[in-house]
Amino acid sequence: MKLSEDGRVPLRSLGDGAVRMFAVGVALANAANGFLLIDEAENGIHHTLQQDYWKLIFRAAREHNVQVLATTHRWDCVAGFARAACNDQESEGVALRLEPDDDDGGVRAIEYTERMLKVAADRGIEVR
């Protein structure tokens, strides 16, 4: 990576994760006082950065008054979310798992609180 004369670095040169985090940050700012849907939240974010990624989302969502709805299929994303949610005393994180409802053929939501998610993350209990 080559720095320009003024010391700036092109965002694209930092990789997909940096571009994704920038895009989510901009989307959070633009969704002020509203909602933001992040589909496949883990895309582009290295598994070792998931907790920090969610900390950034929690903080920006709080600062801009945004309710974030995110989808994922990845365990490391769920675990990072759980740890960030438990460490953030000012925000509330909830996970929902959607599954078929055999009683009526529809779909039901199973809710996991921050505490339940933290236990699941620490013990490797599947919640997806």
- Let me know the CATH homologous superfamily: P-loop containing nucleotide triphosphate hydrolases
Major sheet characteristics: 2 strands, parallel
Approximately how much beta-strand content do the residues carry?
15-25%
N- to C-terminal distance: 39 Å
Q: Strand arrangement, largest sheet?
A: 1-2
CATH architectural name: 3-Layer(aba) Sandwich
Q: Radius of gyration, Cα only, in angstroms?
A: 17 Å
| Element order: H for helix, E for strand | HEHEHEEH
Uncertain regions spanning at least 5 consecutive residues: none
Alpha plus pi helix count: 4
- The share of residues in helices is 40-55%
Q: What's the rounded overall pLDDT mean?
A: 90
In total, the number of domains comes to 1
CATH fold title: Rossmann fold
Number of strands: 4
> Looking at the structure, what is the overall shape?
globular
Secondary-structure-derived class: alpha+beta
For the record, the CATH class is: Alpha Beta
Description:
This protein is of the alpha+beta class and 128 residues long. The protein has one domain: 3-Layer(aba) Sandwich (Rossmann fold). Strands 1-2 form a two-stranded parallel ribbon. Strands 3-4 form a two-stranded antiparallel sheet. Helix 1 packs parallel to helix 2 and helix 3 crosses helix 4. The chain is globular and about 65 Å long. It starts with 15 loop residues before the first helix and ends in a 5-residue tail after the last helix. The mean pLDDT is 90.
